[in-house]
Amino acid sequence: xxxxxxxxxxxxxxxxxxxxxxxxxxxxxxxxxxxxxxxxxxxxxxxxxxxxxxxxxxxxxxxxxxxxxxxxxxxxxxxxxxxxxxxxxxxxxxxxxxxxxxxxxxxxxxxxxxxxxxxxxxxxxxxxxxxxxxxxxxxxxxxxxxxxxxxxxxxxxxxxxxxxxxxxxxxxxxxxxxxxxxxxxxxxxxxxxxxxxxxxxxxxxxxxxxxxxxxxxxxxxxxxxxxxxxxxxxxxxxxxxxxxxxxxxxxxxxxxxxxxxxxxxxxxxxxxxxxxxxxxxxxxxxxxxxxxxxxxxxxxxxxxxxxxxxxxxxxxxxxxxxxxxxxxxxxxxxxxxxxxxxxxxxxxxxxxxxxxxxxxxxxxxxxxxxxxxxxxxxxxxxxxxxxxxxxxxxxxxxxxxxx
Length: 403
Hints:
Elements: H1 3-22, H2 30-34, H3 39-64, H4 73-120, H5 127-143, H6 145-170, H7 191-197, H8 204-210, H9 215-243, H10 246-255, H11 270-303, H12 309-329, H13 334-364, H14 376-402
């Protein structure tokens, strides 16, 4: 294989893994919180969040390039922010990704159970549904990154096919006048959900070292891997906001259900509901694989365990068992878990933290790398401010809706 072909293959692989990690359960919640604002406000806030998360992804890459092989959040935080920074970042990482794992279980396990029921006529209920879900996908992660990468190719293909089918069927019943509705009052309260929907930063350290610290490959992978979800999210909101009555969306939000549960009403065609479930399941799995893989790496880094053999099996248990227990206790936790993950976990870990790491690396430690994000202190300051504002928005949203 020539160097050029290898570069294209690496960018393609990195793009798909980043896109697959990004497109997940959060996508099923986005229209639930943007529909009440209208399509144009939803488009603008989605774009703002994408730009923010793209830039902080590049900051994460810049910080990663200063580190040794196999370094992760804990090692990076300890080096640049000291022991206290390490503990804060580590606690936030555990909080964020366990919240996401809980959301994946809550939305994905029932979808998997519906397929098992339809294909094998076996009805699964209660904790058994979540146990089977965790065992199945925990086993994939336990094998290693090469197997995860191959499975991700297959799932991403199925994801795009089902997505195109849904958009094709739903576009026929989109009512253009619904897209003209605008209510800017609450649009920015959707930011925490969008933050969790654009989270891919967790795979940057693993991919950077997997691609031999090739900054050009990683920069292009981050751009394309985050841009694909942006386009998909915009079209998805166009479809849902233009085709579903607002009261249907609000009902799903109130019940804490993913929007795919309302998809059959788009056309009245029976297969649309099945395709919606296929799309929803694959969206969750592709994201779950990337997130759980990075959690295994994180825990291995923190506990000083190898990422193979018995140690990897133990790390997978630590990754999949706690969220299994939580979701078994409260199965309707989907929307709340996604919002908290984005408003607190993503805003700090994938927004504030990368800016802090780079600030210390550039201006205190005077480090240089093969890649540096533009804008200097001004860009870093703006990104830090936005991260803080999103955390405040999530606090206000929780107080308004749950107290």
